[in-house]
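Exercise 3.2. Students should predict the tertiary structure of the chain below and write it as C-alpha cells, then compare their answer with the key that follows.

Predict this chain's 3D structure.
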Amino acid sequence: MARKLDKEEQRIMDLLPKGIDRPRPLKELINLTGWSSRKVRGTINRLIVIHHQPIGARYEHPNNGYFIITNDKERSIALAPLTSQIMVMTKRAQVIGNAQLGNEE
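Answer key:
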C-alpha cells in the first residue's frame, strides 16, 4: 500500500501543473516554497520513486520545468532525456572502468 504524501510532498504536487503545456520551472518552485534547489529536487524524486507519481520534466527553453504527465505523448517526451542520460552515463562508466591507469605495469 502506498504511503500517504507528507506536507512537503503534497505542497509540490499542488504546485505542479497537469500536462506539459505550462511546466513549472525549478526556479519558480524554489521561489514558491522557499526551499533549496536540492530539497525541491529531492522531494520530486521521492514523489516519483516512492509514491509513483507520474512527474515529468521538460528541458527545452523557454518552456522548461516540471509537470504531471497526463498521456502517452507526454510520457515519451519526459522519458527521452532520461534514456539519453542513461546511455551517456553508461558509456562514461565503461570508459572509466576500462581506462589504463598510470600506475599499471
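Discussion points: The chain has one domain: 7-98. The mean pLDDT is 94.
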